[in-house]
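Appendix B. One record, verbatim.
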Amino acid sequence: MQSDLKVIVVMPAYNAAKTLVETYNSIPADWVDEVILVDDDSIDETALVARDLDLQLIVHPHNAGYGANQKTCYMEALRRDADIVIMLHPDGQYDPKIIPNMISVLADGKGDFVMGSRFLPPKSALAGGMPRYKYISNRFLTAFENLMMRTNLSECHTGYRAYNRKLLETVPFLRNSNDFVFDTQMIFQAAHFDFRFAEVPVTTKYFNEASSISFAASVKYGLSTLWVALRYRLHRLGLWHWDIFNVAHRS
């Protein structure tokens, strides 16, 4: 690691046995202090493969969902005194080589929440093989979210994120959904608590082993995203209270 900050990569895993080793070996080891993998009760050999790697392994006793997996990831990273936490999917879709760029943004104080954007430059997602229907829905949802948050992010739906410790200690992410909309809630919570966003470009690969939600789940996710955005705006206007935007009281 290039500074005295402790960096932990967390990997929320489900059925990632075929891609885990390559993804893990691509992590720039000199920049990362620890890797934590949380296996959400995979039905393949993800946990068995992970045991042969130099990482901290946590196995859920039952399948709890993508959001629940991240909750375990972040709580364990905080417990292990992380200053910077990077969420990297173990399916090989996102390039681990940009991790130093994400760390540098946080270490230099240029942002609190860094996202690896597939839309920097704008057409790079299509060049990387993103299905056109996902491209169109991503553009629409991101535009709507930017409107609600008064931001200008190139993408709100990347699964490649890095946070500083202060954000994770402030944002009440344990109140969030256990489903895929957890990611959207994290962005709106960060905006609500005035944390600074930053983006770095990332290349992606789309292939059979890469994780992907079904079309029906994508529709559900899109509608849930719109609902989060609307409730965020109503909460900001004082018209509809939502406890995911309130800090828990500490005695």
